[in-house]
Amino acid sequence: MIKKLIVFASILFSIVSWSQENTSSPYSYYGLGEIRFKGTEDVRAMGGLGIVSDSIHLNLLNPASYSKIKFSTFAVGATSSFSTLEANETSEKTQRTSLNYIAVAIPIKKFGFTFGLMPYSSVGYKIENNVTNTIDNTERNKRNTGNGNINSFFLGSAYSINKKFSVGLDVSYNFGEIETEYVESIYSPIILQLRSREKNLSNITGLSLRTGLFYNTKLNEKHNIFTSFTFSPEAKLTSKNERNIATIIYNVNGTELISTPSQDIPVDDQTLIIPTKFSFGAGMGRNNKWLLGTEITFTENSKMKNRFGEIAGVNYENSTRIAFGGYYIPKYDSFSNYFSRVTYRAGFRYENSGLVLRNESINDYGMTFGLGLPVGLSKINLGFEFGKKGTTAQGLVQENYFNLNIGLSLNDLWFRKREIN
């Protein structure tokens, strides 16, 4: 069965890799793009609550959890997102599928070691605006498009000081390219067609760190108290920027052709900021039965910058994220009823993203549900998320979305010493 799941995970990874369109949000135009959620699908299904550590699930939100893993673990997750973008009494539907993470954890006595790859942020938008001058019948079309990712390759380690307390550290190398294009077209009875194009490319690299603490203790014979703390200091990314302008035309097949020699324009490189972040969470529950908890995260987003300098009407503020959720297992060791061993999860989250447009804070709300389906030592985690981001006030865009998440946590005992009786 494990071999079949690994084959399925490989197929999933291949499909998602070929269809990577990680976001369709117009808000990904700003800053470093749309900051991606770093947790696994089981955590996401509890509203993003990252206070739990166990022997078979990787908790990528807190590196201190790695020492709690008791089996060698391969984890992969992906999301299909279906969104409706609303603005000025118009709407448009979008769909995307993206890889959320791929990670491996290896336990060695009181230590746990993890490495993997996940997107840190994503850019993907297409915005068009048409304006007609009724006096001279001139029509202007403005189109903004962007795509790209900042990815993180991470190495992590954790140590269990005792049964109650563990500490951990992640080191991430962040890298990626973001390309944006601005095309303005003019049509008039005199000028049949004129298009100018500005293309920008940002090559982004840099290191970042994250530390974590886990503490759990017994409240009584049956119930436990769980606490979690993480801290990520401010990190700097180098954005090497390029700009090219040209006059363009399109042939009958829609292929872009340069009608005049293109010109490279010198632009300054930028030092971008991954802001300071810290979180604290706590909860109460019974092992292999139920858990309820909450977590709050603060991010110093007021220091965020755009890749090519300031943008009029755009500001940043410090952000807050609140998650509340939990899980329930009817009977984890049931032999007669499979659904009694299923983990049922639910949660709610609220996030002030830190982005302020036209004096409107861009907020994100979501409700989540999920199932953890046991397959031997492994789990297939399914999640469903309904949410809303942004607002239609001040001519902005509101995103109503539904996310379908699937994650695999494949576990086995590696490096076992064989014994012959």
UniProtKB/TrEMBL annotation:
Keyword line: Cell outer membrane, Membrane, Signal, Transmembrane, Transmembrane beta strand
Chief location: membrane
Highest rank taxon of the organism: Bacteria
Protein name: Long-chain fatty acid transport protein
Membrane topology value: Multi-pass membrane protein
Subcellular location: Cell outer membrane
Pfam assignment, any one: Toluene_X
Signal peptide: 1-19
Family: Belongs to the OmpP1/FadL family.
Statement: the UniProt record of this protein carries the keyword Nucleus: no
